[in-house]
Design goal:
Radius of gyration of chain B: 20 Å
Largest sheet of chain A: none
CATH topology of chain A: Na+/H+ antiporter like fold
Shape of chain B: elongated
Number of strands of chain A: 0
Oligomer: heterodimer
Number of helices of chain A: 18
Shape of chain A: globular
Helix content of chain A: over 70%
Structural class of chain A: mainly alpha
Number of domains of chain A: 1
CATH class of chain A: Mainly Alpha
Largest interface: A-B, 28 and 25 residues
CATH architecture of chain A: Up-down Bundle
Domain Cation/H+ exchanger transmembrane (chain A): 14-378
Strand order of the largest sheet of chain B: 1-2-3-4-5
Radius of gyration of chain A: 22 Å
Strand content of chain B: 35-45%
Strand content of chain A: under 5%
Keywords (chain A): Membrane, Transmembrane, Transmembrane helix, Transport
Distance between the termini of chain A: 44 Å
Number of helices of chain B: 4
Mean pLDDT of chain A: 84
Pfam families (chain A): Na_H_Exchanger
Protein name (chain A): K(+)/H(+) antiporter YhaU
Order of helices and strands of chain B: EEEEEHEEHHEEEH
Mean pLDDT of chain B: 82
Low-confidence stretches of chain A: 400-413
Structural class of chain B: alpha+beta
Subcellular location (chain A): Membrane
Helix content of chain B: 10-25%
Amino acid sequence: MEHIVFEVGLALTLMAVAGLISIRLRFSIIPFLILIGMTVGPHAPQLGMVDLRFIQSAPLIEFMGRLGVLFLLFYVGLEFSVSRLIRAGRSIAIGGTIHVGLNFVLGLLFGWMMGWPLKEILVVAGIVTVSSSAIVAKVLVDLKRTANPETEMILGIIMFDDVFLAVYLTILSGLLFSGATSVGGVILSGGIALGFMLAILALGRVAVPWLNRVLNIGSTEVFLLVVFAALFLISGFGETLHVAEAIGALLVGLVLGETEHRKRIEHLILPLREVFGAMFFFSFGLSIDPRTLGGAVWPALGAVLLTLVGNFTAGMLAGRSAGLSPKAAANIGLTIVARGEFSIIMANLGKSAGLLSILQPFAALYVLILAVVGPLLAKESKAIFTTLNKVFKWQSPRETKASTAPHGKKEHG
Amino acid sequence: MTNIRESDLPGIGRKFQIDTRSGDKLVIIIHDDGRRELYHFDPDDPDSSISMVTLDDDEARQVAGIIGGLTYRPKALESVEVALNDLVIEWYKVEPNSKCVGRTIGELQIRKRTGATVIAVIDKDQKQTVNPGPDYVLKAETILVVMGERQQIKAFKQLVSNGSE
């Protein structure tokens, strides 16, 4: 552990370089972080004098990646609010249900077709269901689509995905870590996890006025310490109850999100989420042995195909049900295919529960492909729509022409 | 009132959609990082924007000032005001027959009697004085930039035009 700071410094340098490349190529940073992690992982070959295998610092980097998950879900919790969801409206509830329902069923079907055991099927269904909020939101901003009519629906679906993730992660972690074998045991352990979640939320609701007073701290230093203490304590405690620490973080976020200090916490946590989030993707890459990827290629490609079809269909149905034009609806389906952080969290859950080891490389390939393909599809959505429209005839050619005529020359950045 | 629709864009910011009386559709996105984007949509095709402008925070404030008529007041309008929560900043022009002409801010005891504060004055010859002192003499056609709550501004107007509350 002599050169630990130097090793972490090297890791950060590599990540920074990956980030610079991703900006250059105008791409999401996520696939680059995973790839660069994979190339310098403990499984990578040693190239003469240059040994970039982060052996000494690997446990530390892994821990920082875990912090990344905590901050990621803590932030999801902070951002989420029930009133916001209600305001988001009925159409989004329908859109979200279609998206989650369709993809979840496809995921179950896929796992079953692969002949995997039940627990693996459940994890895979989770991996393929939840879109990446980070990538999708970034794509919308980058492509200057924030003002488009379908944007609210897309963000609504993403938000709905987050809710689903929270509930599903809770149930699944209860199920995977309790060691229950009978159907009754499984339901019971899932129920305990869900109960823990609801109990914290109920307690949090009651405690909001009290929290408002407690958090009324002028000093940023002490304020952060209090927030961190709550975050780590409750996440850690949840783990002792077989509730994944990520869920604990999410719950703390949900509770603190109800207080009047939400904005301040968000503001302070955001830079931490960015840095440790990057560590998370990097350390996930580190944990992948590139040699195991071979066996996961076909399952990953199959799942990608299924996801593309599932998301496009879901986007079409959701968009049309909300009265959007076919073109806007197609935009929904082509934007929400990006997968990222949540799929990896699911895969990591499977790993720590000791499930089939193929889940990790499978998730890595799956996320790599969709994190790259997703933004590409979103960018080329107009061409894709025009092509598909020739086959499916959603929109009459006259209309399509009118809608594609202007626009066109200002998609740079 | 023109129809303005507001909605949240979680993780991005807030969206304001304005259907103007002239038939244009304008969408303003305020990003959480401070950027503003203005989109102008094709009235015949609500799916694609014809043009867009990105402004950073201080540019946006300047543009807001220009559109709001703060730097150049449209001739047709009597007074201009900006509301910041409960505080209002108003541009008030001293009429030639007003009782306060020739008196100083201190004499009128503007802050003490109304609660409103004169934060700047612009003389007829466009000479500006920021934060004028109590011995500043009010003249006809001078524009007073005054800040206070609505009630205070109301009292201020009474005081300036009648010489008393």
